[in-house]
Amino acid sequence: MLQLFQDETENQAAAITAALLELERDPRATQPLEVLMRAAHSLKGAARIINLENVVDLAHAMEDCFVAVQQRKIILRRKELDILFQGVDLLLHISKPSRQETTQWEAQLSGRIGDFLTAVAKITAAIAPPEPPPAAGNGVVPAAARKKDGSERVMRVAAENLKPAPRPGG
Fold it and tell me: Is the full-model pTM beyond 0.70?
């Protein structure tokens, strides 16, 4: 089983690396996101089968991050990509040795794994909640309706002109 896990880790780490490099070249590319999510999900399942819980956590954190990117909730810039490349390195370090050595590596790397999980949680926590729609007639213009130069006043006047006219006698 360990050999299968090691082979799977090597293959999926290569896929993650290639997809991250593609995102580095073109942050708007969507194809690499599918590859990243599938690879992280596969690694999570493989690690679960041989009871490497730190690896399960590591792959799960990466998968959550990739889902957030795919949903356009976050953007991966150089700093975030560097952190994710560190995760690939951790996966490869843990998967290389024998089962007994893997357990030792896992213990030795637990601090680095914890640091990685914290860093990925910060990336994923950068998810901005959607702006709530304004209450009817309050004159607040949503950020999406503001002009890029910040001239909200013109947009607010336009928004107020779109309000229904009051009914006579009402």
Answer: no
Question: And the tokens for 15?
Answer: 């896929």
Q: Who's near 6: CB < 8 A, 6+ residues apart?
A: 95, 96
Rounded to whole angstroms, how far apart are CA atoms 61 and 140?
A: 38
CA dihedral 60, 64, 69, 75 (to 10 degrees): -90
Dist. CA 32–CA 15, nearest whole Å: 9
Residue type for 78, please?
Answer: R
Cα separation, 97 vs 88, in Å, equals 16
State how far the alpha carbon of 15 is from the alpha carbons of 21, 39, 42, 107, in Å.
10, 7, 11, 26
Contacting residues for 85 by C-beta, under 8 A, at least 6 apart: 17, 20
Do 145 and 159 form a contact (C-beta atoms < 8 A)? yes
* pLDDT tens, the chain, 170 aa long: 778 888 899 999 999 999 999 999 998 888 999 999 999 999 999 999 988 888 899 999 999 999 999 998 988 999 999 999 999 999 888 777 666 666 677 677 788 889 999 999 999 987 654 444 445 444 444 444 444 444 333 333 333 434 444 555 55
